[in-house]
Amino acid sequence: MKRTLRHLLLLGLPIIWIAVPARAEVFLLTHGGRVEGQWLNQDDKQSAVYEIEMTDGGRITLAASQVTEVIVRSEMLRRYQEELPKVPHTVEGHLEMAERCRKAGLKEQREFHLQKVLELDPEQAEARRGLGYSQVDGQWIRADEWFASQGYVRHKGDWRLAQEVELDARKDRQAVEEKEWRKRLQVWRNAVVRNRKDAAEALTQLSAVDSPLAIAGLSEMLADLEEPKQLRLLYVDVLSKFSQTAAVNALLKRVMQDPDVEIRERSIDAARLHGGDHALAVLTNMLKNKDNNVVNQAGWALGRLGDPAAIPALIDAVVTKHRFKVQTGSGPGAITGGFSPQGGGGMQTGGGVKIIEKELQNRQVLSALTALVPNGVNFAYDIVAWKNWYARQQLLAPGTNLRRDL
Known about the structure:
This protein is of the alpha+beta class. Helix content is 48%, strand content 16%. The chain has 15 helices and eleven strands. A hairpin with a 4-residue loop joins β3 and β4. α6 packs antiparallel against α7 (199-207) and α11 packs across α12.
């Protein structure tokens, strides 16, 4: 026989309702009747009977087969029911009881009394506000009604435009589909790595991937330095099929961070296929990095990318300023070596760690720059000379693709 518990958890106590440990349960009987009282053996989960102390005194025992449902009610709710017949059917009476219900955590009962107030006085402001109404242009309106009238819909506990809800739903669907692709890719990858009998077919499947939903999974597998190199090169080739920014970013991350030179070279070549403009923007921005190693790596990548649009940024980055921490000696005026990139400025003598600023010549940046300009043009690390030359080229033939003039 089904024994269902409906627990009403209540917070707070109004002054006239005294907190006592006693409860009043309602036992619904199979023949349609009901018994109210305290369930004495509630903690005995194995018992086949209900032992009940009646609210009007005395005890009874009911077999489980006699009871269809048990409703567990708090003492607070019982006391509310005792007080209910005494509530005056007036604005003041229902407002007072609504406040008591609020303090006791009886939400539904509170709303009942506030509705009774509005039946007596539709303009009663306290009841209106308690039920979630606000005044808009002199009219009382619920927040949910106002939002609905403005085209909003309820979604995940908030009011959102229908277009936003659809976008969220689309993102959720995409996340599910990307998860499925991760599983699929992992199955194929495992078949290849473990040299199973279906390894050749799995390799073919990996090579043939053309769904953008696979980009996230491929990017994660490519970033795993523990993966076999030949598989990582395959991931680069597959990602090169996509023009989506996520794919290009995954390739550029390998260009800038991967310890394997072949992976770096294959990645920048792959990024150039569909994402040249995006790659150009990302890499030229990296020429401003505080770390001189990043600047040179970005310079190398721009040279490999081969876009003359990078020339102005490369000119600015031929020589860059960087700040370093140095450990100074303990003697007066003594300074020892030991550079490391670090923010800060100025330099002081004496013992301890100090900050110095140095201008560094960036060989990889210069190499990229000379590869993008006509043969014979090379002003080494003279930024002013480079800028003067570039300005003259623009005056002579604005918009000229310098690389095609070679």
